[in-house]
User: Fold these one by one.
Assistant:
Number 1:
Amino acid sequence: MKPSARRVEAAIAAAEALAARRQAPICPLCGRIIPPEAKSSRHHLIPRLKGGIHMGTVRLHQICHSAIHARFSETELAKRLADIESLQADPEIAAFVTWVKDKPPGFHAPTRMTRERRGVRKRRD
């Protein structure tokens, strides 16, 4: 019997909580420590909408995660940015990482969708 997605998510969350108590995780995108009080979230390397619900996830600072989704569509993420190395190699994300890497580990700021992405969304509606 295959475990439900909810049970898998709960097991992942429990394992991450246990690991966080042992040692602060490091954001694979920016390389900064993710302290327990920092906003963070799991990023599906292949978006759930594109079949990545049971694929790998990585824990990122919330600002790093928001920067990714503010710049790229689910399709772009699935087709060409489905791993950390590809994300880091993208010029827009590389510029973001250069900017954020000198910030304190718990730093967070609102992230806006890029003008280009806002235009794409408006055209679809």
Note: Strands lie at 40-44, 57-61.
Number 2:
Amino acid sequence: MFLKIRNITFVLLAALTLGACSQYQKVLKEDDIKAKYAMADSLYTQGIKEEKNSKLKKALRLLDQIMPQYRGKPQGERLAYIYSNTYYELESYFDSGYQFERFTKAYPRSEKAEEAYYKSAKSYYEISPRFSLDQTETHKAINKFQEYISRYPDGEFIGDANEYVSNLRDKLDKKAYSIAKQYHHTEDYKAAIAALNNFIEDNPGSKYLEKAYFYKFDSAYILAINSYAQLVPQRLRAAKEYYEDYIKYYPEGEFAQQAQEYSVDIEQRLQTNNTNS
């Protein structure tokens, strides 16, 4: 008896599913934009509620067909929002970033405007690549978040927006630092000193500052001790100044002990040079 009930239930569910699919296909192929609108809205609502991407994808196919016809009509705002948010929920962030951007321009006074500004920025945040790649999308995400923060300083998403901006700026700092540090890695110490100095000046709040200060000093030290004899004293004195900069800000820093050892060697070399002069 139990198996019979189970089988009947399965058959009924299968029939309902097939019926829903056939109805969807029928609406998809017809020219009735009202029917497409109603079904797209229903599928979108169900997809969000049930967290089913399959329904969101079906809604998106219908929305693609009817968006142009509803532009400028009363239903256009609702459609533009669910169209943008469907892409967002499907994690198609290139599309959602662009569509939410269009939404804010078309409907700046919408009750969904704040959410749209935030989700446009968040979409670009999601497609921001790792630090070693081109950072165009990172800069765009920062600009979008700053626009949101400026418009909604007490907004619903302000905490997250500030956190994401911090993450993005850290990524840019890391890229800038890694480029400067690369000169040190390739033993182009003159270029390393200049690049790390520029990094320090351009990124005063970076978490990579200590490393920048140290490797600037380290580059100057290595350059000095490997120079022609007539250049050594001047370059040692320059290295000594960079050491003083580092130890001033990071007296107990990660590289403090190594820096102090180099400093002792610099003093000894300068004393030897003075004695021989």
Note: Confidence is low (pLDDT under 50) at residues 8-19.
Number 3:
Amino acid sequence: MRVIHSVHPDDLKNYHTEQIRERFLLDKLVQPDAVNCVYTHYDRIVAGVAHPVSQTLTLDTYDNLKAAYFLERREMGIINVAGDGTITVDGQAYNLKKLDCLYIGKGAKQITFAAADAAAAPVFYLLSAPAHQTYPTVLMTIEQAEKVEAGAAETANKRTINKYIHAAGIPSCQLVMGLTILHPGSVWNTMPPHVHGRRMEAYFYFDIPAGQRVFHLMGEESQTRHLLIDNYEAVVSPPWSMHSGAGTGNYSFIWGMGGENLDYTDMDAIKIENIR
């Protein structure tokens, strides 16, 4: 399992493009009939993708975790961003359509992933955090998710925020998770931006059309940097970093956090005029 180490904000000021991509970008996650995970030193979050096509995949443990099984001391959120599929947790099967979410609590031992149709295989995005107690496994469909309308067409940031795992939704130890869908004609996400020093965050971008990209903005508000993001790529955001972006077309992204609290609104706003 690839390991991402923490970066001090002063160091980022001196990074060139390839260093930024190496330290923050999670790419090549989607591989046929494989589970790919990345261990980060930001609140010990693990991010990854399970992409079953013609085989049933099992979530095995990794040497990095020093655990008998993956969720021995962890919890996990999973959102499907492609075709229909099934996740089986200790013998209980859960069917996920596109944009459905499954939370799995600490202590689940056997987790498998399967496609309903190999020609339209699912892409399961996984986010896992350390857990101190067990919460029940819960499936939440996109229709059941709490929805917040944000932004406006006039500022090219009209978007629908779907909340799954949070204080008023699926209960968890520290994981917070949901997804945002940009409306046609809108390209800006999380603008105006913010930071939250109590939590790290990871963005997983999807439904980016072929040939298009998202410019993901990061760094301190007075020392911004950017990453060019392709479809099915993720970026890790340290607690000190703003996280925002604009695409060459509309797209969607999954946001996930781990840290001190489950309060979705725990954030410190950044004024657009202060960004450099």
Note: The helical segments are 9-12, 17-24.
